[in-house]
Each structure stands twice: as structure tokens, then as C-alpha cells.
Design goal:
The chain has 360 residues and is mainly alpha-helical. 49% of the residues lie in helices and 11% in strands. The protein is built from 16 helices and six strands. The chain has a three-stranded antiparallel β-sheet with strand order 1-2-3, covered by helices on one side. Strands 4-5-6 form a three-stranded antiparallel β-sheet. The longest helix has 26 residues, at 37-62.
């Protein structure tokens, strides 16, 4: 059978499973069985309505019939619904440009590869955006199209036939160990500034994103049977777990934190502040004579220092919580130190070199 849709019961939770030419996808219906026969009969009736609707969507796509139930929804409405769920700032910015685009009023069923290609060209050429920002917003839209396929709103993803705007190579560099030491020797005034400084340095030795620094709770730092303290935390961005052992420097930064009784967060001021903390990092970098100090700089620095000191790429990828090692490769550009180490590791052999004068 090429295509089929089924309702599955997994421990009282109902799911819809879709098979399309051997490829299976599963999505929770958000419905649970209660054990009450009358109530559960109504739950199964609702599940069957959803199953039937999904089956009709597949049939419409197969026979080229516009699906008035879902794919007829306007793109910007679909994006707004997802934005309210995620609160994603990049998606919000992408949506604002979509509404400015002359042909942005489009329904999901009307999106073609040509429309997407034209929208990307408009982002790149007519908006005043840098190529990096245009690539970022284009990626946000393409992700929405992938979600639409996942949700059964679309069967085919138009983005599969169009190359994304190329992200330019970043000019931002990780901190050298010397620059990191120079930053560490300079204080930042104010209670929040002081905590921003400690959190940044902590990130340089753990690789935590700013979102995870803000949400880092004390109960997420545990001492294992080997006596080593670890961070065990679900990442805010990817919803995947990271397990990071703390070295001496990271522990010393934690030791500077004086937690009030019942304090939940490791960096409480950072967790509760709505201030733009990037301004602290920018001024701090200028004081130390270091360019491009940002929260991402700390994460980049951790990866580079670890690689320069012999850590394997796969290990660094797991510490950073990357779901794809190709993401880590962006941090793994060869520094001068790595190049010297690589050349120095090559075995030496004795080579007898002829004297040109004697060969004549």
C-alpha cells in the first residue's frame, strides 16, 4: 500500500501514524483514554475524524486537488500560530518581512518553488538586509514549510527544490587563551554586570548558550559517583539533554556564587533580567581590547580551546549539544595552533639532499 493513515494507542495516549511509500511518521493527537467506556468512545470518534481528515489530505495531494481543509490556510496565519507557540524571535522577524513582500499574501496550497526562489531573491537584494540575515530569515521560512509537511498541511515541500541563501562565512573569531585571561582580569561594574561577566566566563568552559545560562538551576548540577560535578540539563533551543563535566575553572566560578536561601537559579540576576546584556559584553570587550565579544563568542571559544587541547570532534559536538556533527565543524576551523600541532605530529625521516654544485 502506497499511503495509509492509522490510529495507534500507546499506553492510553492516541497517535496518528502515516505511511507514505514506506516512510512512517507519527504525531500525538493530544488525546488520552480515561478507562470510561462512554468517554473513550467519544475520544475514538474524535480521533477517527482527525484520521479521516489526514487521509483526505493525502488523497487531495495525490490527485492534484486543492485541500480546502488545511493547505488553503494563509502562510502568514500558519506562521503566526507557530510563533505564538514557540516565541521564536527569528520567525517573528521573518514574518514581518513576509508581510512587506509584494506577493506575501499567499496560501500554503499556492506556494511553489518559483515563489520561494523569488522571495529569497527579494530578501537578499531588495530589503537592505545583510546576506547573513537574509539567509537566517529564509531558513526560518523553510523550517515552517518542513513543519507544514510534518503536520500534514503540505505533502511536498517546495523548499526541497530551491537552494537556500548561502550563509556568509562568519568573521567573528573565538577568543585566544591570552584574550580570555585578559577579559577575566577586568571586572564589570554593577551587580548584573558582575553576574554577566561570571556567566560569560562559565560559558567559555562549559559551552552553554545564553538561554541555558539563564535557565540553569542548582539542582541541574550533580555530583556523580566518580566525585566529578556535572551539568545535566535539557537545552532550551533543541530540547535535547547535555551532560557536561565541570573543570577546575568552571568550579571556581561557581564557587563565587553566593546563593540566597531557596535560590533556584545559578545566575539569578541574569535569569530574571530583561535588560540587553550584550551591551555589557561589548563594553567589556572594548575595555580589554578584544573585538566581537558576544555570548556566542564564549561557546565558540569553548569548542576551539577543547579542540586545540586534543579533544575529539565527536566529544566536543556532544558537549555543545549539537544534534548534527556538521554543525560542530563550523567551530572546528584550523587555528594556527592546530596547524603547528598537525605539522609537528608528522614523523621525521632522514633525507639525503644532493648538493647542486657537486651534481654538475
Amino acid at each position: 500500500m502506497g499511503k495509509s493513515v492509522h490510529i495507534r494507542n500507546r499506553n492510553g495516549r492516541l497517535y496518528i501514524e502515516t505511511y507514505i511509500f514506506g516512510k512512517q511518521s507519527r504525531k500525538s493527537l493530544g488525546l488520552r483514554l480515561t478507562g470510561n467506556k462512554k468517554q473513550d468512545k467519544k475520544v475514538f470518534m474524535l480521533a477517527e475524524i482527525i484520521r479521516s481528515r489526514r487521509e483526505m489530505q493525502l488523497a487531495c495531494a495525490e490527485w492534484g486537488i486543492p485541500d480546502c481543509l488545511s493547505s488553503d490556510k494563509a502562510l502568514h496565519i500558519y506562521m503566526e500560530e507557530n510563533m505564538r507557540k514557540s516565541g521564536n524571535v527569528t520567525l517573528k522577524n521573518c514574518l514581518s518581512y513576509l508581510k512587506r513582500y509584494r506577493y506575501g499574501e499567499i496560501r500554503l496550497s499556492q506556494i511553489t518553488p518559483k515563489w520561494l526562489e523569488d522571495f529569497q531573491e527579494w530578501l537578499r537584494s531588495d530589503t537592505g538586509l545583510s546576506q547573513g540575515s537574509a539567509s537566517l530569515y529564509s531558513s526560518a521560512l523553510r523550517h515552517q514549510l518542513r513543519l507544514a509537511v510534518r503536520d500534514g498541511v503540505l505533502t511536498l515541500n517546495p523548499a526541497d527544490f530551491v537552494k537556500n541563501i548561502k550563509m556568509p562565512e562568519s568573521r567573528k573569531q573565538p577568543l585566544s587563551l591570552q584574550s580570555l585571561k585578559r577579559l577575566a582580569s577586568i571586572p564589570i561594574n554593577g551587580a548584573l554586570g558582575s553576574e554577566v561577566r561570571r556567566a560569560f566566563l562559565f560559558s567559555c568552559f562549559t559551552g552553554l548558550r545564553i538561554s541555558d545560562l539563564r535557565s540553569l538551576e542548582r539542582n541541574m548540577i550533580v555530583t556523580r559517583s566518580d566525585g566529578i560535578m556535572w551539568i545535566c540539563k535539557e537545552q532550551k533551543k533543541t530540547k535535547t539533554m547535555v551532560n557536561i563535566p565541570l573543570n577546575v575553572t568552571a568550579l571556581s566560578i561557581l564557587g563565587q556564587e553566593t546563593a540566597a536561601d531557596g535560590e533556584r537559579f545559578v545566575f539569578p540576576l541574569l535569569a530574571r533580567s530583561k535588560a540587553n546584556t550584550d551591551q555589557y559584553l561589548s563594553k567589556w570587550g572594548k575595555m580589554a581590547g578584544v573585538e566581537h565579544v558576544s555570548w556566542h563568542t564564549a561557546r565558540h571559544t569553548m569548542a576551539t580551546i577543547a579542540l586545540e587541547n586534543g579533544a575529539e570532534l565527536r566529544t566536543v559536538s556532544e558537549l555543545l549539544g549539537h544534534t548534527d556533527i556538521s554543525t560542530t565543524l563550523r567551530y572546528a576551523k584550523a587555528t594556527d595552533s592546530l596547524k603547528v600541532s598537525a605539522v609537528g605530529s608528522m614523523p621525521g625521516i632522514e633525507i639525503e639532499v644532493e648538493n647542486p654544485a657537486e651534481s654538475k
